User: What shape does this take?
Amino acid sequence: MLKIYVDAATKGNPGISGAGVQLIGEQLYQQLNYPLPELTNHQAEFAALILGLEEAITQEINQQNTMVYTDSKIVAQTIDKDYTGNSLFLPYLVRIRELYSFFPLLVIQWIPEKQNKGADNLARQGLQKALKLAKKNNPP
Assistant: This one.
């Protein structure tokens, strides 16, 4: 079974963001972080989930039962209900639906923040990368 832990960090809301992803499986332990553009904190959480799923597909480790853990109740509930009334979240939900088809079984599970520290630390690293990129691209 593949386990994917995802989280996001945002400076401001909306603001520059970062994502963290942990991929854990048999003989697998990867920690990844990504800079993200300016997003709301919820959009960044959805983006982190998509990055985690896409990474599993890219690495061809998606042909197994997969559990995804997020500390975002909005993300977990939106996917569980397969519905959002928020137009900002709809493109993310559509993309997640597309990615579901690449997994034999994919379950998204909400967990408390304290159980998601690894992905949280990675998301903060991604945020730092994004802030450095923004500073580099927009000097004072």
